[in-house]
Specification:
By secondary structure, chain A is an alpha+beta fold. Chain A contains 11 helices and 8 strands. In chain A, strand 6 and strand 7 form a beta hairpin. Classes of the chains: A alpha+beta (306), B alpha+beta (262).
Chain lengths: 306, 262
């Protein structure tokens, strides 16, 4: 009996150990030591939390309705006008011998078979010629007029949300304290990247402010890419090009602006993916809770109490 | 590896599932009777802000001959195809007349010859389609402002409506469009803008049928669908409500914004 129960106990305690690790990982992330004490830290003021979650909704709608609009002409060009023979990106469909569709995505000289994803995909069980698939667009089916209504309504919300955030960030000192990159962020970048790769996230006092990579990333996304996506969006308006001729000049033409707009949108997507991965690795629950309640738990390494 | 792949598959399915849910939400919202007016409410804001910045007379950028597209893309109707239009085309549109009526002191009926003899404007501009592409071409035509001045617009005029020769629907199902003729409207600011023309030449040649022969509108600060082709009758009105579907144009009646500046 005792001989048989020992491995079972061993297994049970190993399972309990794994389970405890998973729970701790979900709560505090990859490099947390469950034995280290935690202290509360007020991390996110109310305006950051509200504008953050507003942005989650607004940017999702902007991206998906933007892809609907893109699908009306699923090709991108550089310059003032469309050189239809030479888009630098295009998503097209070819008819196979059996009548089915093959989606072909071209990027520069490269051709990819993207059937089911880009160029040709199913809408309600039927194959359709379309750039992005219906699950990625608002509305799902091809409906340019409705996509434009969504896009141009939420564009105002995006701008309003951004202006509110930026004003309060500057006014409250959040910008100067947490977001404005420092010289040391650049010089310390290799070391910071190494820390991230080894999943060594800051603890103790160092966790009370953003690290260099965070500052550089948030600054780029909020104060460079976001204004850029708004300005390139405005440049696609023929009325605003008449009002502000420097806009198309600045971006090398309306079609270049459309290209940059698209690249900015995908920079957001890339940021979004990395952002979610980092949230998970550095403690899903702790991060999530701090963006809802503002309060964040900081681990004090070596048992120091703060 | 296999474990990682499964986990990735699980995550991907999770994302796709979430996207589908969100999408289903947006699709059902798109169908709600209150959604359209709510989303559309941004149009008035967009229009007033854009008008504030463009003013009444800011000109669209003009280009040089070197910028002209080797082949100007034709879109929308490529040939009206009606017996009436074919007859006009065979006679090189020599009998084509453009009438100007509605809220004007002196209704006009202009032949192509008369239109071509009026003082003209030539401009090399960028055409922006609502689909997203652009083409540069050289347009020659009579400024709309001059035609409206000739007709004498009454003080209560608010819009200029263009009725066209291209049918957009096939009423008897024979595969040939025969009803729902294209129409569009501009407000007085856009209609009297110096670059708004009744254009009859593209790149120095009379308009080809695919480009709207014999005459089309150019309104350079607006998208392509606001610049109708095959123009026949022009009416100055104080309201768009009783015309067509009441939204100010063929595409507007299909849900597109009346404000085509964006």
């Amino acid at each position: 009996m005792t001989i048989a129960s020992e491995p079972a106990n061993d297994q049970a305690s190993r399972a309990a150990g794994i389970w405890a690790w998973v729970l701790n990982f979900l709560k505090y992330g990859a490099n947390s030591d469950p034995n280290d004490p935690k202290v509360w830290f007020f991390r996110h003021p109310l305006f950051v939390r509200i504008t953050h979650w507003t942005n989650v909704v607004v940017l999702t709608v902007m991206l998906m309705s933007g892809l609907q609009i893109f699908n009306a002409h699923s090709a991108l060009y550089w310059g003032y006008q469309s050189d239809f023979e030479h888009p630098w990106v295009s998503m097209t469909a070819q008819q196979n011998d059996d009548g089915s569709l093959k989606g072909v995505t071209k990027i520069g000289p490269w051709h990819f078979n993207t059937t089911g994803w880009l160029g040709a995909s199913k809408v309600g069980g039927q194959w359709a010629v379309r750039g992005f698939p219906s699950w990625a667009t608002i509305p799902g089916p091809q409906w340019l007029a409705m996509g434009r209504l969504w896009h141009f309504f939420f564009a105002w919300l995006f701008v309003a949300n951004g202006v509110i955030f930026a004003s309060l960030a500057v006014y409250s000192g959040h910008f100067a304290r947490d977001l404005r990159p420092k010289e040391s962020d650049i010089t310390g970048l290799p070391a910071e990247i190494a820390h991230h790769v080894k999943l060594q996230f800051p603890k103790g006092d160092a966790a009370k402010s953003y690290n260099g990579i965070q500052r550089l990333t948030y600054f780029t996304v909020i104060f460079i890419i976001a204004p850029l996506i708004v300005l390139t969006g405005l440049t696609m308006s023929p009325t605003l090009d008449a009002a502000f001729p420097f806009l198309p000049w600045l971006f090398g033409g309306r079609q270049s602006a459309r290209t940059i707009h698209f690249l900015c949108a995908f920079s957001f997507v890339l940021f979004f993916i990395v952002h979610i991965v980092m949230v998970v690795l550095s403690g899903t629950w702790n991060n999530f809770r701090s963006m809802i309640t503002g309060r964040y738990e900081i681990e004090q390494p070596g048992g120091r109490h703060g | 590896m296999a474990e990682g792949a499964t986990r990735r598959g699980f995550l991907m399915r999770g994302f796709a599932g979430a996207a589908t849910l969100a999408l289903a939400g947006c699709d059902s919202i798109s169908q709600q009777p209150w959604a359209d007016p709510l989303l559309r409410s941004a149009e008035a804001l967009t229009k007033s802000i854009q008008r504030l910045f463009e003013g009444n007379h800011a000109l669209a950028q003009e280009f040089t001959k070197a910028d002209i597209a080797p082949s100007f893309r034709a879109n929308g109707t490529l040939d009206p195809g009606t017996a009436d239009y074919r007859a006009h085309a065979q006679k090189n549109f020599s009998d084509w007349r453009i009438t100007v009526g509605g809220l004007v002191e002196h209704p006009l009926s202009l032949s192509m010859e008369q239109l071509r003899k009026m003082p003209s404007r030539t401009q090399i501009t960028r055409h922006d389609c609502v689909e997203g592409w652009s083409c540069i071409g050289e347009w020659t035509g009579a400024p709309m402002a001059q035609i409206l001045a000739l007709a004498g617009v009454k003080p209560n005029a608010r819009y200029v409506v263009f009725y066209c020769a291209d049918p957009m629907a096939d009423s008897d199902g024979d595969g040939v469009n025969d009803s729902d003729f294209y129409y569009e409207s501009l407000d007085m600011v856009e209609a009297t803008h110096p670059q708004t023309l009744l254009a009859y030449n593209l790149n120095g040649q009379p308009l080809a049928i695919e480009h709207g022969a014999p005459v089309r509108v150019r309104a350079e600060r607006q998208l392509g669908y606001k610049q109708p082709k095959y123009v026949k009758d022009i009416a100055v009105v104080d309201s768009l409500e009783k015309i067509g579907g009441g939204k100010g144009g063929y595409w507007e009646d299909q849900g597109y914004n009346w404000w085509g500046g964006i």
